[in-house]
C-alpha cells in the first residue's frame, strides 16, 4: 500500500484503566480502503475506535492524521477534523424528530427562523440513502425501533464530507436489504477516498467488503493483513485463541408438551392475530424484517405493552394466565431479555452485583435490607457461569464490553430460574466466542426443560440453533418451519409475504384490517 494514500497512522497506542485494556497497537488507515477490525468482546476494539474518534484519550502512543500530529480532545473535535464514528451506543435524542437529529448542529434557517420545509427536504434525501424513505422525517426518534434508530445514526454520519469513518457493528439490527444499502454507501465512500474502519464479528460481511483485517485479542494486535489471506476458521482461531467447532451439539433433550401458548395476540396493526406454541425443551426462533412486530410480540407476552386481544397459557399442563405487567409475567415464570440492554436491561452506573440481584431481591435481602455477602456471592456465581470478563462483582456494568453486559442481563434471569425465557436479539453486538457461550447456555436450559423463544435478525443463527422457526411479516405469522425441512429461501419468502399482501391490497384501494 502506497504511503501517499495513508490518511492516519496509529503508533504504539495503549490505554490503561484499573488494568491495561489496550497495549502497543500500531495501524495504518488508507484512502479508499475498508479495514475490518474484529476480535472478541473485551478485546479492545471499542477502546481503539473511541481513541481514534476522540472519545477516549490514550495512555500511551501517538497518532498522525493527514501527515500532522492528531490528538482530538473530544468527539466534536474529531468530527470537525473529518473523523466520524457510528457507535453501538446510539448518539440520538429520542425527544427530537428524525430530521432534527440528522441536522441538529446545522439546522437550515431563513430570516433567523428554522426552515421546517428545508429541514424535511434535507432529511428525506439523507434518509433515502439508507432506505428510510417510508418514515416521516417529523417522527420522534424515541418512537422508532432500535433497528430504525441505527439507520438514522448511520444516515447522520453520512451527511457532509469525512476522511475517516468508523462503523461499530453497523449491521447488528439491519435487514438484508438495509445491509445492501449500507454497503452501497460504503462503496461510494471508498470511491471518494474515505478510509473506513468496519468493526464486526460477522465474518461473511467482512469478506464481502473489507480489504484488510486487523484482529485484536486481549488488548493486543495479533494480525493486520490482507483479508484474502485468511479463511473464516483461521480468523476465528486468531480472535479467540482456540478453534471453535462448526456444529453445535446440544446433547440429549426431551422436547415435551407445550409450555407456552399464545392465541390471537393483537395490538393495532403491529401485531395481528398471532398464535404460536413453544414446547418444553424447545428452542423456538422468530424471524422477520425490522418492523415485522417481533419485539412488539415479545413485549405483549411479557406484559410490557397492553394487548388489544389475545390469551396466554403457560405451564405443564397449560393454564390461562392474566399478564397485565412485567410483574405478572415474572410471577408466572416468564423472563424477557430485551434487545435494548442499555436502555431497558441494565443500571449502567451500578455494579454487576447490584444488576444481577435486581430480579432476585428475595434471595439477597431480609426485611428490605440487602445482605452484601449474599449479593456478592450471587453475582460471583453468575460471573463464573456466564464467563463474564470482569475485575470483580463490584465493577460497574458500564465499564464492561457489550457482550459482557449482555451476559450480566442473562445471568440475572438464570438466577431467577424462569420456565419460559424470551430472548430478543440476545447476541447483538457479541463476538463469536461469546455467541458460542450463549448457544451452549441455550442448550443447557433446553435440557432442563425450559421453553426458549429467540428473536434474531441473523437468519443463519436461527437456523443453527433452533428446532422451529416462525416468521413474522407485517405483524402476522406467515409461516412456521421445522428443522431439516426449512430452507433459507423459504424463510426469506415468508418474511416478505405479509408486506406483499398488504401492498397489493393498498394498490387495489382496499384498507387492510387490523387483524386477519
Structure description:
The protein has a six-stranded mixed sheet, with helices on both faces. It is α/β, with parallel strands linked by helices and 516 residues long. It has three domains: 238 residues, Rossmann fold (3-Layer(aba) Sandwich), CATH 3.40.50; 166 residues, Rossmann fold; 76 residues, no CATH class. It contains 18 helices and 24 strands. The model has no long low-confidence stretch (mean pLDDT 86). Helix content is 35%, strand content 25%. It is globular.
Radius of gyration from the alpha-carbon trace, in angstroms = 24 Å
Summarize model confidence as the mean pLDDT: 86
Shape: globular
Percentage of residues in strands: 25-35%
Question: Given the helix and strand composition, which structural class is it?
Answer: alpha/beta
Report the CATH C-level class of the largest domain: Alpha Beta
Task: Give the % helix.
Answer: 25-40%
Distance between the termini: 59 Å
Low-confidence stretches: none
CATH topology of the largest domain: Rossmann fold
